[in-house]
Write a structure and sequence with these properties.
Helix content is 20%, strand content 40%. By secondary structure, it is an alpha/beta fold. It has one domain: 2,3-Dihydroxybiphenyl 1,2-Dioxygenase, domain 1, CATH 3.10.180.10. The strands form two sheets. It has a four-stranded mixed beta sheet with strand order 1-4-3-2, with helices on one face. Strands 5-8-7-6 form a four-stranded mixed beta sheet, with helices on one face. It is globular.
Length: 128
């Protein structure tokens, strides 16, 4: 079971502002801050997210093919959160829209350090 995800940053102060603002929209809350890292938890979920300056002192870099995804309750919420992330300085990596033959509605962005995120909604199956 995955307990947490850690993403690197080269500017902890800017990252803190971005994640404080963005994550509160999806019930994320900062629960610990050190001189090198900030940790967030999510109401009703055990998973955690950490934003950290690399321990080895080297610059933080993004992984090609690495992505963190947030599941939300509606297509409208996908649109709202994508727009909000962009207003905080995130870079658009894919406008909200239907993907995977209608099985998935999602949008993509990169945070201030270039880490890639998806916000998505999977509609309920008919009769479910």
């Amino acid at each position: 079971m995955i307990s947490h995800t850690t993403l690197g940053t080269n500017d902890l102060e800017k990252a803190e502002f971005f994640y404080d603002e963005f994550l509160k929209k999806i019930n994320g809350e900062k629960f610990l801050k050190t001189d090198r890292a900030i940790f967030y938890s999510f109401q009703g979920h055990e998973s955690k997210l950490a934003i950290s300056q690399p321990f080895n002192g080297e610059p933080a870099t993004t992984g090609n093919g690495t992505m963190v995804s947030f599941s939300v309750e509606s297509e409208a919420r996908v649109q709202e959160l994508h727009e909000y992330a962009l207003s905080l300085g995130a870079e658009n990596e894919g406008d909200p829209g239907v993907r995977y033959n209608g099985m998935y509605y999602g949008a993509y962005f990169r945070d201030l350090d270039g880490n890639k995120f998806a916000i998505f909604h999977v509609p309920a199956k008919p009769g479910a």
